[in-house]
Design a protein that fits this description.
alpha/beta, Nucleotidyltransferase, domain 5, globular
Length: about 260
């Protein structure tokens, strides 16, 4: 194998993501796998699945350099370097669209807002990791209340005629409130709109702490939730900019960009 490849692996709380770039900086493969209890197993599975899509690669061991990121990055012993997910989300977004200056990253267990500098570095960030409300796990729990999968639930609020507020600040109390609202025969789509509005409000409060500069995008699995994107766009009074790749792999992509940059230096 004469061509060099660079890997990034984002070990999250619910999924592991991997991205591979060739020596020209072109994305050659990406993948998402469910997280295992052991972060290292998650990273190996994600990278091996990504390598299987590249003819020149037999294993992640063939990669010229690997950068780990995400909450489990320090457990990935074989990575050449570990870089925070905040920096990797900024770099991955910058790789996709240098005009984007603000990120809302809704992860499985936390929400982050990131301001990006003109070179793709982090200007400022704010983070909510003290409460599950507004996170991916919160939306998963809500979808179960509605007896829907996440894709169905993401579309439900698009049919709402009005927004029924969900006022509880705690995820546990919010679940109880939603169950009560549905039991009182409120239209499910209107209640779902209230849930999305509550999440958007939390994101907006974090965005205000870093300053909202266009363009704004959303990363993480929740970026696929169409109802949430619509609600957030309304809250910030501007359209959320879509990314040209799966928004769930942005952290892994940023890690791969760092791997290529630092491995070529």
């Amino acid at each position: 194998m004469t061509k060099k490849y660079y890997g990034g692996c984002d070990v999250g709380s619910t999924t592991g993501k991997a991205a591979i770039l060739d020596e020209n900086g072109t994305i050659v493969s990406t993948t998402v796998v469910p997280s295992e209890i052991d972060p290292e197993i998650t990273s190996v599975q994600a990278l091996e699945k990504a390598c299987a899509q590249v003819e020149d690669l037999n294993s992640y061991k063939d990669l010229a350099r690997i950068v780990g990121t995400g909450y489990g990055r320090n457990e990935v012993a074989f990575a050449n370097e570990n870089i925070s997910e905040i920096s990797c989300h900024a770099m991955g977004t910058f790789y996709c669209n240098p005009d984007i200056k603000t990120i809302v990253d809704i992860g499985g267990q936390d929400v982050k807002t990131i301001a990006i500098a003109d070179d793709g570095s982090v200007l400022e960030f704010a983070m909510n990791d003290k409460c599950a409300a507004g996170t991916g796990r919160f939306l998963e729990a809500m979808s179960r209340i509605f007896r829907m999968d996440l894709e169905e639930f993401s579309m439900l609020s698009l049919n709402a005629r009005k927004v029924i507020p969900v006022t509880a600040q705690c995820s546990v109390f919010a679940e109880s409130e939603v169950i009560s609202l549905l039991a009182r025969k409120n239209p499910p789509e209107d209640v779902a709109a209230g849930i999305k509005a509550a999440v958007s409000k939390r994101c907006f409060s974090l965005l205000k702490r870093i300053g909202i500069r266009p363009l704004v995008t959303v990363t993480g699995g929740c970026a696929k939730n169409q109802g949430l994107l619509k609600s957030l766009s309304k809250k910030i009074k501007m359209e959320v900019t879509a990314l040209p790749v799966d928004p769930q792999i942005i952290g892994a992509l940023g890690a791969a960009v760092f791997a290529r940059r630092n491995g070529s230096a």
